[in-house]
């Protein structure tokens, strides 16, 4: 990794390390493993799943092909329905009383289940429907939240939207689990079960 960073082009992300302020606490080269994972696994899975949904909805497919913003919305909506980070870990900084009366002391380890929060039947009008026009509104946490929120959001959206366009233009057929428009969407979408044939 260090070798690659030393020879990185000035117009590459790694090339920007040279001009980016850092201290003894920062480990820019150490970030690269995360970038490769985040772009190569996380984003790839989300893009593939988006392709699987859109391929089964001709109206969404046409709109996504013609409109960059709608394509991004399709990606985000897919991430709401099937978030790749299913649990977020946090620690409470103060005592919290739940509406039901329970007390959680400060310093408690908490897990936030995005898979539940993104489909909360009490908080959302159509939790189990693919609705890109409403995508991305809070309280969805597919990119996390607060101070630790994913710093790669813009890069992920930009890259995912661009790849989806090429994929939609060149895709001949997508084989995927059935995702009917008139039924609640399943809580899991196995990306290993998605096959794409491209021209
Ligand atoms: C669709 C793609 C991606 C998804 C779904 C995603 C999701 C997430 C999530 C859920 C977190 C935890 C945030 C929290 O705890 O609040 C996170 C953290 C992080 N992400 Fe991403 N990410 C994606 C792409 C990227 C990309 C492309 C990069 C960089 C090139 C990146 C870099 C990071 C880093 C460095 C952190 C750690 C932040 C910290 O703890 O301070 N991510 N991401």
UniProtKB/TrEMBL annotation:
Gene Ontology terms, MF aspect: heme binding; iron ion binding; monooxygenase activity; oxidoreductase activity, acting on paired donors, with incorporation or reduction of molecular oxygen
Top-level taxon of the source organism: Bacteria
Classification via Pfam families: p450
Matches recorded under InterPro entries: Cyt_P450 (IPR001128), Cyt_P450_sf (IPR036396), Cytochrome_P450_monoxygenase (IPR050121)
Entry similarity comment: Belongs to the cytochrome P450 family.
PANTHER family: CYTOCHROME P450, CYTOCHROME P450 12A4, MITOCHONDRIAL-RELATED
Protein name: Cytochrome P450
Species this chain originates from: Amycolatopsis sacchari
């Amino acid at each position: 990794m260090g070798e690659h960073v030393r020879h990185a082009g000035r117009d590459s992300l790694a090339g920007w390390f040279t001009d980016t302020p850092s201290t003894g606490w920062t480990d820019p080269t150490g970030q690269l493993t995360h970038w490769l994972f985040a772009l190569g696994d996380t984003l790839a899975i989300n893009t593939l799943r988006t392709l699987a949904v859109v391929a089964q909805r001709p109206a969404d497919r046409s709109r996504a092909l013609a409109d960059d913003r709608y394509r991004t919305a399709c990606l985000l909506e897919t991430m709401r329905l099937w978030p790749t980070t299913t649990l977020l870990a946090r620690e409470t900084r103060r005592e919290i009383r739940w509406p039901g009366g329970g007390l959680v002391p400060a310093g408690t380890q908490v897990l936030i289940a995005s898979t539940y929060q993104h489909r909360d039947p009490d908080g959302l009008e159509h939790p189990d429907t693919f609705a890109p026009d409403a995508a991305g509104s809070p309280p969805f946490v597919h990119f996390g939240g607060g101070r630790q929120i994913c710093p790669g959001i813009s890069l992920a959206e930009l890259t995912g939207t661009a790849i989806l366009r090429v994929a939609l233009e060149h895709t001949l057929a997508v084989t995927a689990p059935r995702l009917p428009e008139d039924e609640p969407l399943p809580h899991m979408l196995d990306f290993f079960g998605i096959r794409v044939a491209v021209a």
